[in-house]
Amino acid sequence: MSMPWLFQSIPALLLALSLLFALSSPSVEASVHLYSGEKFVTKGNAFVVHAGSEGIYSSSSNGNESSYIRFEKITFKRPKEFSNVSSLPIHAVIFEVDDRETIGGSAYGGQRAVCCTADLAKLGVCTQGEIIHRQSIKNPGWPQVFGVSFGVDDLTSTLKSKTIQITKTGMYNLYFIHCDPNLKELVVEGKSVWKNPSGYLPGRMAPLMNFYGFMSLVFVILGVFWFSQYARFWKEVLPLQNCITLVITLGMFEVALWYFDYAEFNETGVRPTGTTVWAVTFGTVKRTVSRLIILTVCMGYGVVRPTLGGLTSKVAMLGGTFFLASEVLELVENVGAISDLSGKARLFFVLPVAFLDAFFILWIFISLSGTLNKLQARRMLGKLDIYRKFTNALAVTVIVSVGWMCYELHFKSSDVYNERWQNAWIIPAFWQVLSFSLLCVICALWAPSQNSMRYAYSGDPSEEFDKDDTLTLIKPSPMPSKDVRSPTEVMPVYGGNGVSNGDMEEDKTE
Question: pTM (2 decimals)?
Answer without folding.
Answer: 0.80
